[in-house]
Amino acid sequence: MSDNYEPNIVAFLCNWCSYAGADLAGTSRMQYPANIQIIRVMCSGRVNPLFVMNALQQGADGVLISGCHIGDCHYMEGNFYARRRLGMLKELMEFIGVDSRRFHMSWVSASEGHKWKEVVEKTVEDAREAGPYEGFRRRRIDW
Amino acid sequence: MSAMLLNKEKWPDFIGKLADKKLWVPQADGDAMRFAPIAEGAALPLEFSNTRVPPKQVVFPQTETLYRFQLGQEEMEQPQLEEEILLLGVRPCDARAMEIVEKLFRWDVDDPYYLKRRALTTVVGLACNEPCVNCFCPSVGGGPASTEGLDLLMIDLGEKYLLEPVTAKGVDLLAAVKEFLDEAGTDAVKQKEQVISASMQKIKRSVDTEGIPKGLPGLWEDSLWQRVSASCLGCGTCTYLCPTCHCFDIQDETEGFEARRCRMWDSCMFKEYTLHTSGHNTRPTRRERTRNRINHKYSYYVDKFDVIACVGCGRCINLCPVNIDIIEVLRQVKEAL
Amino acid sequence: MEMDQLRKTAAEIVSRDDVKYLIGWKQGTFGYRIAPSFVEDASGAAELLFSPLCTANLATYLRLVETLPVPRGQEADTRKVALMVKGCDSRAVAQLVVEKGISRDQVVVIGCPCPGVVDVALLARKYPETEIPAELKWNGSGFTLVRSGEEIKLAREEVLAEKCRLCRYPNPVISDIMLGEQVIPWEPSADSGVAEVEKKDYAGRWAYWEDQFSKCVRCYSCRNVCPLCYCQDCILDRLNPTWVNRAVNFSENTAFHIARAFHLVGRCIECGECERVCPANIPLGRLNRKLAREVRDKYGFEPGADPEAEPFQASYKPDDPEDFIL
Prior knowledge:
The structure holds three protein chains of three kinds.
Chain A: E1 9-14, H1 18-27, E2 36-41, H2 49-57, E3 62-67, H3 78-96, E4 103-107, H4 113-130
Chain B: E1 4-7, H1 11-17, E2 22-29, E3 32-37, H2 56-59, E4 63-70, E5 76-77, E6 85-90, H3 92-106, H4 112-120, E7 121-126, E8 152-156, E9 160-165, H5 168-176, E10 181-183, H6 186-202, H7 212-215, H8 224-229, H9 237-240, E11 248-255, E12 258-265, H10 286-305, H11 315-319, H12 326-336
Parallel strand pairs in B: 2-6, 6-7, 7-8
Antiparallel strand pairs in B: 1-9, 1-10, 2-3, 4-5, 4-12, 8-9, 11-12
Chain C: H1 3-15, E1 19-27, E2 34-39, E3 48-49, H2 60-64, E4 80-85, H3 87-98, E5 107-111, H4 120-126, E6 135-138, E7 143-147, E8 150-154, H5 156-159, H6 162-165, E9 177-178, H7 194-198, H8 202-213, H9 221-225, H10 250-263, H11 273-277, H12 284-299
Parallel strand pairs in C: 1-4, 4-5, 5-9
Antiparallel strand pairs in C: 1-2, 1-3, 6-7, 7-8
């Protein structure tokens, strides 16, 4: 692995908590790694496990999903479903051989700019350790 | 060049000499066999009836890029097909299937991809000593030592292979390795006849195809289609593993700004196969799809190319998860005629 | 179970006014094959049988049936379907009821307590199939194979299907009519093949599955045979958006298998059909069993065990495990 390797992370953030939390981290001028590409979704419960699979196929080295804390979901129970589903997705991915450091999930509220910073740092560091992910990429268009 | 003998001990040398081509040989994969490219020197497995996926995958790959391009650009790049392929251990039925399918790829418009690959491929057959339980090749015009579609036929005589060239390519191939070969005498030919007739004895199942190609269209609304398709799952096993099935779908795929147009096997047993953009499906249920599969093989293809598009390899019977048996279906067709 | 009793009961059921047809097993056309049979009248019941060769899970046909739109002025046929089930198959029916894939009163479930079926491929390896259909019977401790007049005794372990070694539900969990005596459940084997993969590291597991998924020809027989894969519009068939490209290569095959396995989380009833029908011999059962085990151990959920349950992926508990959350 080369020293200047920068992992590519796709993050799915819920509109009501984590996205606002990330926004807060920004407006508070907190420094965190710029390896995260954020995709805003309405709720962590909206994250289809296939999003994760597709992100990895299209060149992500890691995926982060973040939503409201349990009990705080804007839609009352969306994150309960997400927890069940994505927990099982993580089991499946690990069983197939996807390094557990490539897939993280967190609860970050709108007021937790500092926590967002920590989560991103941890995610990026883990993905950096795991290295570039070529295994699952759509094969470069060749013959 | 006449028939030659190759001692099995010399097999590695024989293969080594041919390594300038890309070699595809059947290889064991658990219980099943499959064609795979090999490193030089690999042995030819002796006891197998046939591979699960037919060697059509070599001349007609499951996914094949037709050309590639950059999004927003006008230039396109076509594949350079140059590598010579040597297909070893092809059963006569599968070689015959290539010959049958070629008629389609030459009809109307020549298909440059298929024909180029076919031209680059030398097919070395291996006569069947152990046909499988559902082989019925003699009923549809083949046989355990049929040479149609082959460049060279090998017959396993125990300690030796008898090599019989069929085409000029086969003669050239033999000439390239003649140092390892011995002249075949009359006993070898006699032995071959014994082996083949013993093999013929082992083929127990058969189909009487007489009248079927002409009669099938008349059974369009017959109740037999409902009966035989009731248990069909609509999967692609029978068609993907069929050596003569040749339908394909064309898709554009992109990654970033790179894109390609490619074709991949398609199956008439899938409901998407005939699904129109409007949502209308001309073959709405498995009854129509099953009917089409049988009609295509035993009637339409005969009308167009004067040959049944089934070589009797038995794969669809062996591997159908719900025992839809084409021999039994044809028996019912015959009864209904 | 007596075949006469089975055929008599089946004939009675299929003669009822509120039953459209009965789905059971019949003798196949060669070797050890068994074919599904759709019986529409009492005379057809004579071909039905139940033997250790009846591996197929017929519950698939409850949702697989394709119907044309009912022409104006006619009424849809709303009669029930009668279905023969083993223990594992009955769980598929129960799970379909849980998901409201079918309505319980639309099916007449004929339960067949099952002492375990054989792995036909395993049997054929020991005693090659012939063009003449053979017969296999339970004989108390194992199986008796009857072919071309000779009787061969087989030890149970020799040819028992893997799903049956691991079986915890040999008796149907739901039924309207039960045929024969209940079977005493046996101790399921501890070796489900999952541990063999789990003991590898990530790279080793990836290499293992890369090897397996590369063989896939995408015939979709695993999806189609599955009693719980019944979406009218499967994401694998979608073109807009294209979740899984049509190209057959390792990346797309892996995406397909992840999607397939994931969609069965908390739903797979471990009937082993996907593995049985795979023409490429991919050990799909290992994926499903691993996930079923996690669902059982971590969430205490057993699909198809209780027709009154809430579907696993459409429900939650406030105290679901969340040790993986940062």
